[in-house]
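User: Predict structure, ligand zinc ion.
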Amino acid sequence: MAGLSLDATQLDRYSRHVIMDEVGPEGQAALLNARVLVVGCGGLGSPVVQYLAAAGVGGLTLADDDAVERSNLQRQVVHADADVGRPKVESAREYVEALNPDVAVDARRTRVERSNAAALVEGHDVVVDASDNFPTRYLLNDACRLTGVPLAHGAIYKFEGQVTTLVPDGPCYRCLFPEAPEPGSIPDCATTGVLGVLPGTVGRYRQQRL
Ligand SMILES: [Zn+2]
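Assistant: Predicted complex:
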């Protein structure tokens, strides 16, 4: 019986998953065996990390090279006031470890570059693009194409957002948006502002689609 791969504590923790025919003990075991790379531990990455960890995704790789700033706290809900100045991957890792001991976190304080993108993506079941810039977005798209890993993408602007999942045998991000915008032509949220709850909505919606 597949349920035997979950121990009693896990059957309790994930009981609302396990009870559903669409998930069941097999589905929960698959989540526990899954590895997801989340690129960006900011506004979009925070709710993604929260719900993937709570759902029992057993392997989370977090990639981000930023430190927590006070202006992040209005929406980046895995970081606390005491984390200001600390690496985002460290406060996100501590958040996950406190929430769910089933989750092994690999915290990488790194930026996704041409030189490391494919190696970073490799070995994951899904990649979540929760980054805040176009070079990273295109690099992740290309790395996911090369390695055949599905890419869940989300982006936000002031009061609106977009979410899509790009599977290896379907159209990619470059099919949707062939040309990257000119550097500096799209303002970031430090320039335009962003409604605090918006990345939460976009991030959670994307997590449901994984
Ligand atoms: Zn394409």
